[in-house]
Amino acid sequence: MDLSNVVIAVVILACIVMVLFATRYTTNQKGFDEMQLKKRGDAFRIGFFTLLACVLLMLFLNSLDSFAEKVTVDFMLIASIMITACVFGVYSIWKDAFFRMNENPKTYLGICFAVVFPNAIVLIGELKQHGTLLKDGKVTFTPCGNLLNVVTFTIIAITIIIKMIVNRREEKE
Amino acid sequence: MKNLKLKAARAAKDMSQEQLADACGVSRQTISAIEKGDYNPTINLCISICKVLGKTLDELFWGD
Questions:
Q1: pLDDT tens digits, one per residue of B4-60
Q2: Residues of A in contact with B18 (CB under 8 A)
Q3: Containing H/E element for A74?
């Protein structure tokens, strides 16, 4: 049996397990009220179509020789996932469907900063050492993946902060 | 369309959105969205709100 077939089978199996896992835990989400569940459904749908669009765009760009020479497939894959996570996060946070009822958003802010700081340190180190984020003139998984992490989690953190301010104002009214 | 009847009934009971939300088992944002007309609640939540505010479904959720 060809090794690539084994890899494909493992990936398909992993996808099935992930879908089963996700549906098991998304159909019984305790701590979310009815409006939050509806908005989360919208967020998942938007995220799904975003991922689909990103993958299609990735396939198209990868078919262009001039682009494929400069950007690796693994970077494009991680970029697609990060864009999807960002879209889902921002949409559900803005629609009050990301946090469970009475959950403190500050915990998630802490997680965001815990992700941003190490990645930012890696980026700064890379820039100091090589003066560029490219490897052999290519955009690669590392360190450009670190840049994606920084951007994604910074956007999510900013959204959480803005939403906290908006909610606080609403509560006062 | 804004649900001013709900807002008025809540104010008449001297309840904040947070208190009404806690009594109904939903988030404050859900009550806010219902009052703003951004979200149409299920019949179960409507009944729950009516019970807490001592009103009927017609009084709170039936349009004029």
A1: 899 999 999 999 999 999 999 999 999 999 999 889 999 999 999 999 999 999 999
A2: 171
A3: helix A73-94
pLDDT at A24: 61
pLDDT of residue A7: 67
Count of alpha carbons within 13 Å of B28, Cβ hemisphere only?
14
**d(C-alpha B48, C-alpha B35), whole Å:** 15
Residue A80 in contact with residue A54, Cβ under 8 Å?
yes
Instruction: Quote the tokens at residue A122.
Output: 């890696």
8 Å CB contact of A101 and B17: no
Interface of B with A in 5-64 (CB under 8 A): 17-18, 25-30, 32-33, 39, 41-42, 44-45
Taking only the tens place, the pLDDT of each residue in A2-26 is 666 676 777 777 777 777 766 665 5
pLDDT at A28: 54
What is the domain class of B4-55 according to CATH? mainly alpha
Whether A156 has a pLDDT exceeding 60, the answer reads yes
Which residue ranges make up each domain of chain B? Answer: 4-55
Instruction: Please answer whether residues A84 and A47 qualify as being in contact, where contact means their C-beta atoms are separated by less than 8 angstroms.
Output: yes
Asked if B30 lies within 8 A of A170 by C-beta distance, the reply is no
The span from the CA of A36 to the CA of A39, in Å, is: 5
| CB B64 within 8 Å of CB B3 | no
Closest CA of chain A from B56, distance in Å: 21
Our CA dihedral for A148, A41, B18, A163, rounded to 10 degrees, sits at 20
